[in-house]
TrEMBL record, chains A, B:
<protein>
    <submittedName>
        <fullName>NAD binding domain of 6-phosphogluconate dehydrogenase-domain-containing protein</fullName>
    </submittedName>
</protein>
<dbReference type="InterPro" id="IPR013328">
    <property type="entry name" value="6PGD_dom2"/>
</dbReference>
<dbReference type="InterPro" id="IPR029154">
    <property type="entry name" value="HIBADH-like_NADP-bd"/>
</dbReference>
<feature type="domain" description="6-phosphogluconate dehydrogenase NADP-binding">
    <location>
        <begin position="6"/>
        <end position="161"/>
    </location>
</feature>
<dbReference type="InterPro" id="IPR036291">
    <property type="entry name" value="NAD(P)-bd_dom_sf"/>
</dbReference>
<feature type="domain" description="3-hydroxyisobutyrate dehydrogenase-like NAD-binding">
    <location>
        <begin position="314"/>
        <end position="432"/>
    </location>
</feature>
<dbReference type="Pfam" id="PF14833">
    <property type="entry name" value="NAD_binding_11"/>
</dbReference>
<dbReference type="Pfam" id="PF03446">
    <property type="entry name" value="NAD_binding_2"/>
</dbReference>
<dbReference type="InterPro" id="IPR008927">
    <property type="entry name" value="6-PGluconate_DH-like_C_sf"/>
</dbReference>
<dbReference type="InterPro" id="IPR002204">
    <property type="entry name" value="3-OH-isobutyrate_DH-rel_CS"/>
</dbReference>
<feature type="domain" description="3-hydroxyisobutyrate dehydrogenase-like NAD-binding">
    <location>
        <begin position="173"/>
        <end position="293"/>
    </location>
</feature>
<dbReference type="InterPro" id="IPR006115">
    <property type="entry name" value="6PGDH_NADP-bd"/>
</dbReference>
Amino acid sequence: MSKPAVGFVGLGAMGFGMATHLVKQGYPVHGYDVFPASIERFKAAGGIPASTLRESAEGKKYYIVMVASAPQAQSVLFGDDGIVQYLPQNAVLMLCSTVSASDAQSVVTELQNRGRGDILFVDSPVSGGAKRAADGTLSIMAGATDEALNAARDILQEMSDEKKLYLVPGGIGAGSNMKMVHQVLAAIHICGASEAMGLAAHLGLDARATAEAIFASDAWTWMHENRFPRMVEEDWTPGASALTIILKDAGIITSSARQHRFPTPLCSTAEQAYLTALVHGWGPKDDSAMIRQYYAKPLSEVSPSADPKAATELVLELMRGVNLVAAAEAVAFARYLKVDLAQFHGLVTQAAGASKIFIQQGLEMIEGLIGDKAPEGSPTVEQAAAKLEAVVQKARDLHCPLHLGNAALNVLFQAQRHGSGRHSSTSVIRVYG
Amino acid sequence: MSKPAVGFVGLGAMGFGMATHLVKQGYPVHGYDVFPASIERFKAAGGIPASTLRESAEGKKYYIVMVASAPQAQSVLFGDDGIVQYLPQNAVLMLCSTVSASDAQSVVTELQNRGRGDILFVDSPVSGGAKRAADGTLSIMAGATDEALNAARDILQEMSDEKKLYLVPGGIGAGSNMKMVHQVLAAIHICGASEAMGLAAHLGLDARATAEAIFASDAWTWMHENRFPRMVEEDWTPGASALTIILKDAGIITSSARQHRFPTPLCSTAEQAYLTALVHGWGPKDDSAMIRQYYAKPLSEVSPSADPKAATELVLELMRGVNLVAAAEAVAFARYLKVDLAQFHGLVTQAAGASKIFIQQGLEMIEGLIGDKAPEGSPTVEQAAAKLEAVVQKARDLHCPLHLGNAALNVLFQAQRHGSGRHSSTSVIRVYG
């Protein structure tokens, strides 16, 4: 059976991989991008070049939008040459860009205002990076009406891993909310990876040995493992994952949080660290270049530590403390937004926001195993704070910035001041109300 | 009556001013510094040069230590050539350096261990900057036994403004604690001045006009008015008040706070911003150079705003929000440390940590005029958060870092999440427990 034609806009790092993967699966994909060079590259990879948005959309029952931001999505959908006016009746329109839930919801309103309520619109952001995009093994979080989800399902499944197409309950906006709460972890862990390696450098630790210790421990994060090779090689141009991308995602989180008056101290702290790097000109570089905000020289130029074992333990404790509060922040915000928490946990576990701490302690938070109900032998908030405190003091003695470590410690102290000190460390989630 | 001889160590920016002021008042001051050039400069100003610590101390009934840090104080007091071994019986030893209360208390212990319990030791940090040091109009916060305070009083009064010698109840450590809680405000406001002017630049505002609007408003801080000329002139070398100095003071605050497990989210945020500037090489520069962490170009090179009135209001709202939470953080920490709050308020009002918000809302917090007891017509936490939220969103749209603005907003959101939203904005202090 021949595959249906697909329209596609946004042939950047992620979009190019997704579109060419569909080409390999036998779909005639009509791709457009604002950069002619990207269209040429797509043509060379077997895609069908579209010279205008109109050409990419006319007669296409399926259409995928993978531009970089909500304003770009607004423009390609509803601008002067916007695709909505060209799509056929009952077309299936998949918005895969990362936008806020309210941006996704406003697309529905505008479709109706323009008399295109017939279009089957799906809010379906993706996660996984350029490599998984090209392999067709992305995580995709899709929210829509049942009719639209059924219509989009096969194509979304082509682009996602067999087990990573998440049909998120809650309609339009639910997919974007799921992606957003996932990105709470991603935004913190990307900065956290540089913070941990910056501390390691100040402590005189070998970067590779430290990273291996992290990967083998409960301090592991997906982001650390993913970013570390580029960080240590200083392979920052062009950015495989540009600083501006995670900055945009952090901005979606914190502006949504502000709309709900919900505190996100760690994610805000990471965002401010990214903005400071932007002021220093690092925006287009790979986000692993955040290491430069913590340590001024290459990681290969450290002075060796006298006691690498104890020093490595400090780095692990930093990550444990930050990852714990990150898990609390993500779970608390997800719960507040009424995100399906079991699905959220399953998704994160398999995606870029994963950490060992989230997988274990995050689940305990989700299941309400906090306070007296925590598993026997769990460390207390006081104990978690005491360990992180020792790291923060050591970093301070070394003049090493520790944005996330300090923010996490202050959240733990707030938990203590509000009576949770002797309770399990997962009880730190109570600070979020 | 001839004035008694005074020994003095630490002829840096502050110490030189203090020592030469005593010289002008007729005291024979025997000054020592680790840098021979500083001793020469002191000699040229009428001081008596001491070529060793011993020479500065032998036979001196009064001795003033004004070195830069606690480790330096430890060394000049108790090192191999330390002055304690040379001071006469019942000498009056004034430690004017900014150190932690526990550092000051450990001096007492060590004096006793060395059989020098006869020395009348005074914990007497100062505030006010190099100019006021030279004018003899510093603020001095002195804690000690009554006997030691009486013995030191005349000399401390020589160096301080008539109304700004504070005899702080509580003995050794009380002076340092008073200085420390004052520096909570100083550390936040120094960073806050650059943050506000950075936002102003991103908004396209003229720096001088904006500063004048700030000085004339309830957003005024002493630090802003003091640092602004150097910030706008880029007069950063050598630092009139080096970044490393406020960084040291912030470190005393946050490490003391950690010892008490007390949260200081704003002060920690400022400290991390300073540490990041240090990584970028700004340590020896004037702390007003923090503006470079917010805006990459000189303030004179901004693109003019279309609506300067509305934009200026955003800058004022930023400072109001930050100064409010700064006041809460300082008052809460001072109360926790059992600092005399009435004296604290009076002192700050006349010193470098002053802000209009602290003078008014800080007093309301001290007097317990929060919640239902706030003055009629006070804004609520919700209202304060909503105003700051608009600023934070605008700054984010402009890619302007807003470390303190975001941290303050998260504290306000936490107050809302814990049920204080409809209460007076001063109720934000409840977040500190």
